[in-house]
């Protein structure tokens, strides 16, 4: 079936049950339409919009999921405070070419009378970086995405490179468990000063927002150091950490220079490399990364 031009601005259908979501996508496929899936936690911004637009160009029916997944938040994290704005999200979804928004309540995904007993962990890929900083987070992500893939059925699923480790974890999970899902990586959308768009940027006040640009400056510094010929990971991460340290409002979580394929730290950087940073600006924890070839 030829690709349909996305009909921007039409109202989206909102579905809040697992069965309703499954039936809607099964129905679309039975009618010969390909399905694009864009999993999100809502508070949609231009980064999410870029995923939806890409899906709308490549698939006949685009479903955006909006679910703040409790499994991927640790104790003391921002589960309660996380922005929830479904009406605005539906407007963004409609304007960017989505047809369906799946926004289940927590009890629909995790029925209290039948507590979830199965979780998905993805081994070495999820033990480093975010996995070390936020124990259980990536298992929470892999578990909810596995459930979304199981309910959605055969589709292409769009994920942002903004969460690079998450992207690798989801890809590996889909391969390991045999989901009929093509995982599509989409580039990071940034603000004018390089700050990666994130729903959590809404937590930042004016001065913190300015300070947050240091994450991108740190990554750019890392790229410069590699491009100047440095191949040892440690001096590269030290340069990135020093840039973060130069911003008084920032507190470094990690700076890493790794093999982009498996997130391991090589003795010498060569081929596809990923530079990643995490830092706290006030109470807000932000992450960012860039790819390059060494
Ligand atoms: P979230 O709602 O934060 O869970 O993100 C949902 C999806 O949007 C994930 O695949 C993210 O990687 C992706 N995403 C978030 N921010 C951006 C961004 N600035 N650019 C591109 N993709 C993004």
Topology:
Elements (H helix, E strand, L loop, with lengths): L12 E3 L2 H13 L4 E6 L5 H13 L2 E6 L19 H10 L4 E3 L3 H4 L20 H4 L3 H16 L2 E6 L3 H14 L3 E6 L19 H6 L2 H14 L5 H13 L4 E10 L12 E10 L2 E10 L1
Parallel strand pairs: 1-4, 2-3, 2-5, 3-4, 5-6
Antiparallel strand pairs: 7-8, 8-9
Helix pairs in contact: 6-7, 9-10
Main β-sheet: number of strands, strand sense, barrel status?
Answer: 6 strands, parallel
Give the uncertain stretches in residue-range form. 1-6
Shape: globular
What hetero molecules are bound to the protein chains? Answer: adenosine monophosphate
Helix-strand category:
alpha/beta
Alpha-carbon Rg, integer: 19 Å
Average pLDDT over all residues: 96
Separation of the first and last Cα atoms:
41 Å
- What is the H/E string? EHEHEHEHHHEHEHHHEEE
The total count of helices amounts to 10
Assess the beta-strand content as a share of residues: 15-25%
- The main sheet orders its strands as 1-4-3-2-5-6
Number of strands: 9
Helix content range: 25-40%
Briefly characterize the structure.
The protein has 294 residues and is an alpha/beta fold. The protein has helices spanning 18-30, 46-58, 86-95, 106-109, 130-133, 137-152, 164-177, 206-211, 214-227, 233-245, and strands at 13-15, 35-40, 61-66, 100-102, 155-160, 181-186, 250-259, 272-281, 284-293. It is globular and about 55 Å long.
């Amino acid at each position: 079936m030829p690709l349909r031009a996305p009909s921007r601005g039409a109202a989206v259908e909102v579905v809040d049950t697992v069965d309703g979501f499954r039936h809607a996508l099964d129905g679309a496929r039975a009618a010969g339409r390909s399905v694009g899936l864009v999993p999100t936690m809502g508070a949609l911004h231009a980064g999410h919009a870029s995923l939806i637009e890409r899906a709308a160009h490549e698939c006949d029916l685009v479903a955006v999921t909006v679910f703040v997944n409790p499994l991927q938040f640790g104790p003391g994290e921002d589960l309660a405070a996380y922005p929830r704005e479904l009406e605005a999200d539906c407007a963004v979804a409609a304007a960017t070419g989505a047809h369906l928004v799946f926004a289940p309540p927590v009890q629909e995904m995790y029925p209290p009378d039948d507590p979830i007993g199965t979780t998905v962990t993805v081994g070495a890929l999820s033990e480093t970086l975010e996995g070390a900083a936020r124990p259980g987070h990536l298992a929470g992500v892999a578990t909810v995405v596995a459930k979304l893939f199981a309910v959605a059925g055969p589709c292409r699923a769009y994920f942002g490179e903004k969460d690079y480790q998450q992207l690798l974890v989801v890809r590996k999970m889909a391969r390991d468990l045999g989901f009929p899902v093509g995982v599509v990586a989409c580039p990071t959308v940034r603000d004018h000063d390089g700050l990666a768009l994130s729903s959590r940027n809404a937590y930042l006040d004016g001065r913190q927002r300015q300070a947050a640009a240091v994450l991108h400056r740190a990554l750019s510094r890392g790229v410069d150091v590699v491009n100047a010929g440095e191949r040892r990971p440690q001096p590269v991460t030290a340069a990135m950490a020093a840039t973060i340290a130069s911003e008084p409002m920032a507190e470094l979580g990690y700076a890493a220079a790794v093999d982009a394929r498996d997130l391991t730290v090589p003795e010498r950087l060569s081929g596809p490399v990923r530079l990643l940073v995490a830092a706290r600006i006030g109470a807000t924890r932000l992450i960012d990364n860039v790819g390059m070839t060494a």
